[in-house]
Amino acid sequence: MDDSTLRDRLGQLGLSEKEVDTYLSILGSGEATASEIADDTGVSKRYVYSISESLEDRGFVEVNDHVVPTTIRARPPEEVIDALTDRLEEMSGALDSRYSASAREPQQFDVIKSRVTVIKRLTEYIRNAEREIMLSVPQQYLPEISEELVAAVDRGVLVMLVVSSADDLRPDDVSGLASVARSWNQPMPIMLTVDAQFGLVSPAEMVTRTNSDQRAIAFVQQQLVPVLSGSFLGNYWLMATEVTVADPAPLPATYHDFRHAVLQATLHLRAGHDVRVSAEVRAVQADDDITTIEGTVVETKQGVAEPQTNSYPIEHTLVVDIGDRTVSLGGSGSFIEDYETDEVTLSLAE
Question: What is the pTM of this model?
Answer without folding.
Answer: 0.68
